[in-house]
Amino acid sequence: MRQEHVLTIVWSAAYQPAWDATPEAYVEGGVVGWSRSRRLARAEDASAGFKAFVGVQHYDPSRWHVAGEPRAVFFVSFFQGGRTLALRTFPTMDVALAELRRVHAGLATPLNGPAARD
Known about the structure:
118 residues; alpha+beta; 5-stranded antiparallel beta sheet
């Protein structure tokens, strides 16, 4: 029997679809503070032991004595089986969600295929 892998995304009330191309709007709108992050969604596929958090982060390099301008970006943190897989940042929400779906598809696909050989 083939197991269906479905990624469910639950959005926070803080999520503003109109700001998908401008993470800075979350800072300007007071949703995320300077040098802080805010989760905007939780994605999960329990059948694959997969979850991810989607959010927005403001980063000020001067806080870490690093050169660069303060900026806001979207992020996705990926987990499977209780282990952290990665934390990645993205310029727009569309790019972040595309990566979320790509990573999920890559993790779920082998579970539907033939068993691995030793």
